[in-house]
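Anyone opening a protein record will find just a pair of labelled lines. A complete record is shown below as an example:
=====
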Amino acid sequence: MSENHGRDDYHDPTRGLGGAAPARSALTLRLVLAGIGLVSCVVAAVVLAVAGGPVVVVVVFAVLAVVALVDIVVVVRRKRRGEPG
């Protein structure tokens, strides 16, 4: 496998310039934060729906929960593919 342990076709034209370390993706941190966001938004949407809160706010929390779920799916796919982070 290649030196960067990511995609085989990846090429960094600036590698080795300036002595800077290569940037790495923080996929695990992104996964944890998306999980926290998913749980928080679902709980908020359910609590507001049961308490009779404004429908618009409930829908906003539900949409944010779906966005967090999609982000979790994307991150898991990237981690299974072998990307570092």
About this structure: The chain has two helices and no strands. The mean pLDDT is 85. Residues 46 and 58 are 8 Å apart (CA to CA). The first helix runs from residue 27 to 51.
